[in-house]
Amino acid sequence: METLSWRRRSTNHLMLSLLFLGGVLAAVPFFFISWYVLQKGLGVLSFEFFTQTPVGPGQTGGGMANAIVGSGVMLALASVLGIPWGMAAGIYLSEYGRGKTAAALRFSIDLLTSVPSIVVGIFIYGVVVIHFGFSAYAGAMALAVIMLPIVARSTEEILKLTPQHIREAGLALGLPRWRVILRIVVPGSRAALLTGVMLALARVAGETAPLLFTALGNQFFARSLSEPTASLPVQIYNSAKSGYADMEALAWGGALVLVFFVFIINLLTRWLMGMKWN
Amino acid sequence: MSSSSYELGRDVRPSDLTFYYLLKGLAWGLVLLLLAMVGVIFALSWEALSHFGPGFFFDPSWDSWREQFGALTFIYGTLVTSLIALILAVPVSLAVALFLNELAPSWLARPLGFFVEMLAAIPSIVYGLWGLFVLAPFLRDHVQPPLGQYLGFLPLFQGPPMGVGMLAAGVILAIMIIPTIASISREVFRSVPATLREAALGLGATRWEMLRLAVLKASVSGIVGAVVLGLGRALGETMAVTMVIGNRPQIDWSLFESGQTMASILANQYAEADSSLHLSALTAVGFTLFVVSLAINSLARWIIWRMQRVN
Q: Is residue B178 within 8 angstroms of chain A, CB to CB?
């Protein structure tokens, strides 16, 4: 048997090494980013960081309490609108969505997912902010619009995994279809649905662009939901471009809190999914 | 009733029908939302679009003092940064997808795949922060000087190394779209039947020849879909780009120079537009971005959908 030519063998080695290099290269940024965020953010996190509002430029100290509270409030408001609506759409697609019109619906929802988030901000600006001014409500609506298609599609994917015979068993007992769906199909996928919702929250928690001209931002605690409201991502942005070292340090602290939140949710959901399906 | 009898079957109870129409209404409400977005943003752009006409898209000026606005600078910035991102991200994404799917043992593929996927979970503001304080200074000190020294005869790599600018924006975008392109490519490679690989190896192909002839050749349209989807993500990315591009509305050959993209001009000026024409011109830039990203994403999904149907 003839051995491989030198050219074919060396091409093989070269290309396989390049693929290996590419694989390593793609994983490197994750470590660099995590490491910098941890290294620069950890020293900033203190009791003060979580309890104080930002101080003026040039002064030391201060924190991001108003931003953390603002983000929490807007995420909660966005969930109130985004989760039920998104889940309803997902249930429709999974339980009734067959044929061409459902395919068109699915396609439109996917397109909604890919709308740049800054464009969502313009939309809410035109619908809400022009009439009522910058507010937590407007910010929450922008976040809800971004959540909706994510929740809808994840709900659909999860419910589709429910075996058909479970639905048939419920129907055979004489239950109406809506009860089969709400009492058997949906509760049976509780854990997975929850992880889908948490992933959508994690995604939306880091959104900055749609909040820039809906919730705007605030140096202090907002006194009501109809006032400009601080959020963690926007405050990170404003601190980072302030040009003052102390505020830049606060930005790294905020980034660490944000990344920690997002990673915890991602790890938790992976762990939950792993328990369920492995 | 024809669609409900199709989707529900015959003999339905009133309660079932109510539930069905409620869900259907909420689901189609999302389509309505998408249409409303197009309508509202177009209506707000109308003042500028009718004032400047089609010339708006070919005018490089952006002067809120003289109220002369054009989108060309931002279209240029978006195209150039996205192009840099694709040139850098596509080879790396394909390499990592091939490596993880076809070569790496599972003890290595699992954690490596996890790290690449987690790149997609990092918020773009964090990319921006890292890009501004870590990546841009690194490019300024270690990448741009040698580029200027050895490739400085090209207009692309001229001028003083500043760190922030089009190149930094392109690099950060590349990192951000790697997980998108890689994960879809992995799915595409997974759908290539094992028999093709075995046939190639059985005929005496080397591992690389097998990957090239059996896996890559069979996946071309899927890869194109993945790349276009990555492009869609790069076009609309706002915060990371805004923080590293330098934010100067100018068209310059050099990638070391500052620029401005469609998304970054919105982030910079929308909240504090001086006049209604300025606000409308900004909205028109947003509308352009919206339409382009809808078109790009439709194209990508159509390519992927067609490929899935063939397999």
A: yes
Estimate the crossing angle of helix B276-310 against helix B220-236, to 10 degrees: 160
| Distance (Å) from the alpha carbon of B119 to chain A's nearest alpha carbon | 6
Is the Cβ of B207 closer than 8 Å to some Cβ of chain A?
Answer: yes
Q: Could you say which residues from 147 to 166 on chain B have a Cβ atom under 8 Å away from some Cβ of chain A?
A: none
Query: Could you state, in order of their start, the residue ranges of all structural domains in chain A?
Result: 69-235
- Contact (Cβ atoms closer than 8 angstroms) between residue A228 and residue A215: yes
The fold of A69-235 is MetI-like fold (1.10.3720)
> DSSP assignment of B183-196, as one string?
HHHHHHHHTS-HHH
Number of residues that make up chain A: 278
CATH architecture group of domain B57-310 = Orthogonal Bundle (1.10)
CA B158/CA A13 separation, integer angstroms: 37
Which one of B18, B36, B238 has the shortest CB-CB distance to A117? B238
CA distance A239 to A233: 10
Spatial separation of the C-alpha atoms in residues A190 and A196, rounded to whole Å:
10
Q: Count other C-beta atoms under 10 Å from residue A72's C-beta.
A: 13
Judge: B130–A33 Cβ closer than 8 Å, yes or no: yes
Are B235 and A116 inside 8 Å of each other by CB? yes
Q: Which residues contact A236 (CB under 8 A, 6 or more apart)?
A: A67, A208, A251, A254, A255, A258, B125, B126, B129
Print pLDDT tens along chain B (311 aa).
445 556 676 667 888 999 999 999 999 999 999 999 999 999 999 999 999 999 999 999 999 889 999 999 999 999 999 999 999 999 999 999 999 999 999 999 999 999 999 999 999 999 999 999 999 999 999 999 999 999 989 989 988 899 999 999 999 999 999 999 999 999 999 999 999 999 999 999 999 999 999 999 999 999 999 999 999 999 999 999 999 999 999 899 899 999 999 999 999 999 988 899 999 999 999 999 999 999 999 999 999 888 877 76
